[in-house]
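queue> pop job 88
queue> type: inverse folding (structure -> sequence)
queue> payload:
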């Protein structure tokens, strides 16, 4: 695992800072731990990324069906993710969603690179500077030419996404994916189902 080095420099005043601000060390340690966690790219223990993965079939648009919610996706509906090749051999990432609390669309662009061999569905993704997080594909619909669904884990069991090529996913397929996630220790009681009604309407017009 590659971890970016974080240097914290403290300029000491005439009196030792530790005596003037004894609360500062726990704060600095918490920040440092947060930065290191943000750089975690390995799959959670017990989670095996898919093999025989074909990136070309994974490119294009995906609809987010369900997720474990986080600050960066809170209040987002109609979420989509689009993947395309970058000139440097990586994958360009564009995530888009509608912020229901602000009544506006939100979009963010990032980049992804394979952690190991390109036929293993395990990548590191960055939306902010040198900080990467793991993106590990646990399950795919192998029968579909462009993969019909994807179950994705982040760097720990607090991150999970169910993706589909269409704004809806058959109930039995969704149930199988969620059962797989639960069997791997993901907290299904915290799962958020994503409102894709806006994309369903747009798709029906096409």
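queue> result:
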């Amino acid at each position: 695992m590659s971890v970016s080095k974080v240097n914290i420099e403290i300029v000491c005043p005439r009196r030792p800072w530790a005596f003037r601000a004894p609360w500062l060390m726990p704060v600095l340690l918490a920040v440092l731990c947060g930065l290191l966690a943000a750089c975690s790219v390995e799959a959670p223990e017990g989670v095996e990324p898919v093999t025989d993965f074909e990136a070309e079939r994974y490119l294009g648009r995906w609809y987010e069906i369900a997720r474990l919610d986080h600050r960066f996706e809170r209040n987002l509906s109609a979420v989509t993710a689009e993947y395309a090749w970058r000139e440097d051999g990586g994958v360009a990432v564009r995530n888009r969603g509608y912020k229901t609390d602000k009544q506006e669309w939100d979009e963010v662009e990032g980049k992804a690179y394979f952690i190991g061999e390109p036929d293993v569905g395990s990548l590191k993704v960055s939306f902010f500077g040198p900080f990467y997080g793991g993106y590990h594909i646990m399950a795919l619909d192998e029968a579909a030419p462009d993969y019909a669904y994807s179950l994705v884990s982040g760097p720990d069991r607090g991150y999970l996404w169910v993706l589909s090529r269409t704004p809806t996913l058959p109930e039995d397929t969704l149930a199988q994916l969620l059962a797989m996630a639960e069997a791997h220790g993901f907290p299904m009681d915290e799962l958020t189902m994503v409102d894709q009604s806006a994309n369903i309407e747009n798709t029906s017009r096409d």
